[in-house]
Design goal:
The chain is α/β, with parallel strands linked by helices. It has two domains: about 5-95 and about 210-265, Rossmann fold (3-Layer(aba) Sandwich); about 95-210, Rossmann fold (3-Layer(aba) Sandwich). Helices cover about 45% and strands about 15% of the residues. It contains twelve helices and ten strands. The chain has helices at about 15-25, 50-65, 75-80, 80-90, 95-105, 120-125, 125-135, 150-155, 160-175, 190-200, 210-225, 245-255; strands spanning about 5-10, 30-35, 70, 95, 110-115, 140-145, 180-185, 205, 235-240, 260-265. Helix 1 crosses helix 11 (about 210-225) and helix 5 crosses helix 11 (about 210-225). It is globular, with a radius of gyration of 17 Å. Bound molecules: D-glutamic acid (DGL). D-glutamic acid binds near residues 11, 12 and 118. D-glutamic acid binds near residues 12, 15, 44 and 149.
Length: about 270
């Protein structure tokens, strides 16, 4: 059995492209339909009600495109809305938090794990719960990194301001003696070189995207829904707001995989 329909992926902006990168490595024959909710970015300071409203609209859009599975490529939605969304739709839907927690517990020698994420993710305690569900003795230290998403969305992936912000957010975690640091917002792997500079090479810097792709691979194997496409047609990218900055910053990460970005107003 096979299924040539696309995989739907969404986030507030370019962050979820770090997940797309990993998906394309693990599942190179699959077509991606990506939605970046740039009209509502940043998600990290939104209420649960707002996040639910955005998620419902995006999921309806992706279902209209007839996707076969949805990857919530957003730490905030994976933490806040995913548990409810999972009960509402029949196709597979998965997020980045459970896989990220699993990979971190595996990586950490001392079971002292740091989490950098948005305010909404940190307040939900989702990473703490998932990590402690695997190892109740693990120690988890968290920082809400509110300055990072706007810097990334505006293409400031290096430079003094970005470095200062990363230093401010990582130093309290390092003082706690963590040996593993989860980039708990899908935007942050754009800053992995800067974060690595601040933490030093001994810290296991974890991007949940690879483990998320692995989980999707397992689900697709179980259901036998791999694509058998021979002509690997274009992936599709949609945004609800600014498409120009999405195109420019997105291409820094994915290159010409992003050919065109189509605006789809959501309000
Ligand atoms: N990339 C998203 C996340 O992983 C959203 C960040 C934001 O828009 O604040 O949380």
């Amino acid at each position: 059995m096979s299924d040539n329909r696309a995989i739907g992926v969404f986030d507030s902006g370019v962050g979820g492209l770090t997940v797309v990168r990993a998906l394309l490595q693990r599942l190179p024959k699959e077509k991606i339909i990506y939605f970046g909710d740039t009209a509502h970015i940043p998600y990290g300071n939104k209420s649960r009600e707002q996040l639910f409203q955005y998620a419902q609209a995006i999921i309806s859009f992706l279902l209209e495109q007839d996707v076969k599975a949805i990857v919530v490529a957003c730490g905030t939605h994976s933490s806040v809305t995913l548990p409810i969304l999972q009960s509402q739709i029949t196709i597979p839907i998965l997020g980045v938090v459970k896989p990220g927690a699993r990979a971190a517990v595996r990586c950490s020698q001392k079971q002292k794990i740091g989490v950098m994420a948005t305010r909404a993710t940190i307040e939900s305690q989702a990473y703490v719960k998932e990590i402690k569900a695997i190892n109740p003795a693990a120690e988890v230290y968290q920082t809400a990194c509110t300055r990072l998403v706007p810097l990334i969305e505006s293409g400031q992936l290096d430079g003094a301001e970005t470095r200062r912000a990363v230093e401010d957010y990582t130093s309290p975690l390092l003082k706690e003696g963590i040996d593993t640091l989860i980039m708990g917002c899908t935007h942050y792997p754009f800053l992995a070189p800067v974060i690595k500079d601040c933490t030093g090479a001994d810290i296991c810097l974890l991007d949940p995207a690879a483990e998320t792709s692995e989980e999707l691979y397992r689900i697709m194997l179980e259901r036998q829904i791999f694509s058998q496409r021979e002509d690997l047609s274009q992936h599709e990218f949609y945004v609800s707001g600014n498409d120009q900055s999405f195109y420019q910053v997105g291409r820094k990460l994915l290159g010409n995989i992003i050919q065109q970005v189509e605006p789809v107003p959501m309000d």
